[in-house]
Amino acid sequence: MVDIRLIPCLSDNYAVLVHTGDETILIDAPEAGPIKAALAEEGWTLTTILVTHHHTDHVQAIDAVKGSAKVIGPKAEADRIKELDETLDDGAEFTLGGLEVKAIATPGHTSGPLSYYFPGAGIAFTADTLFAMGCGRLFEGDPATMWNSFKTLRAALPDDTKIYCGHEYTLTNARYGHQALPEDAAIAERLKVVEAARERGEPTVPTTMAAEKATNPFMRADDPSVAAQLGMAGADPVEVFAHLRKGRDSF
Ligand SMILES: [Zn+2]
């Protein structure tokens, strides 16, 4: 039995707790208060913190919440995450509390982030790489690098995988997707669902790989109908991806 708790932090960040048996794993530490409150409410004690990437809004509360937990994160960004006790390379496989975990390098937003996939639990944490209906900003990578990371995730995560991302950006992403691809019925429909959820104050995370394959314009950069709607029929998927990312930058 795996219990999962999504914790809104700061203005639009998410931290997540994964609890099984005596193990409680935190994915990213944006803000101490809400994380500590959730742990106290559940009566859980942190045993591991998995860090996705070096950005301040994902690491700044590590010291405040860690207690005796082990802090694990990407070797490729270890020089920029001083709190790490242990580092991981792309493809690392390990178990936490009996749960299998795979580390997947997904560069583009930063140079060396890791996404974490728990195949037995059917959950994945893609932080600021793959968002619900969107993709992270390209601070330390180019469109080709990020597109490659999207393809890596698409190949690695089965359709029913529940995907937790690092921010609640879905409404803006959905509005952008609908503006970029106004004739796409699946995107238009999901925009309505997302609008309704946000009006009720509900999170739109987790998403699923199936939903992203259907309605995330970035995940569909190699879909001929997307290229055609953008007036880019026959273009390389990297060009389509770059075009979509450029549009989202100024949306
Ligand atoms: Zn970030």
Which tags fit this structure?
about 250 residues; 9 helices; about 35% helix; globular
Task: Explain the overall architecture.
With 251 residues, the chain is an alpha/beta fold. It has helices at residues 32-42, 56-59, 62-65, 143-156, 170-180, 185-199, 209-215, 224-229, 237-249; strands spanning 3-9, 13-20, 23-27, 48-50, 70-74, 86-88, 93-96, 99-105, 114-118, 123-127, 130-131, 134-135, 162-165, 207-208. The chain has a six-stranded mixed β-sheet with strand order 1-2-3-4-5-6, covered by helices on one side. Strands 7-8-9-10-13-14 form a six-stranded mixed β-sheet. Strands 11-12 form a two-stranded antiparallel sheet. Helix 5 packs antiparallel against helix 6. The longest helix is centred in the last third of the chain and has 15 residues, at 185-199. Zinc ion is lined by residues 53, 55, 109, 128.
What topology emerges from the helices and strands here?
Layout: E1 3-9, E2 13-20, E3 23-27, H1 32-42, E4 48-50, H2 56-59, H3 62-65, E5 70-74, E6 86-88, E7 93-96, E8 99-105, E9 114-118, E10 123-127, E11 130-131, E12 134-135, H4 143-156, E13 162-165, H5 170-180, H6 185-199, E14 207-208, H7 209-215, H8 224-229, H9 237-249
Parallel strand pairs: 3-4, 4-5, 5-6, 10-13
Antiparallel strand pairs: 1-2, 2-3, 7-8, 8-9, 9-10, 11-12, 13-14
Helix pairs in contact: 5-6
The structure holds zinc ion (ZN).
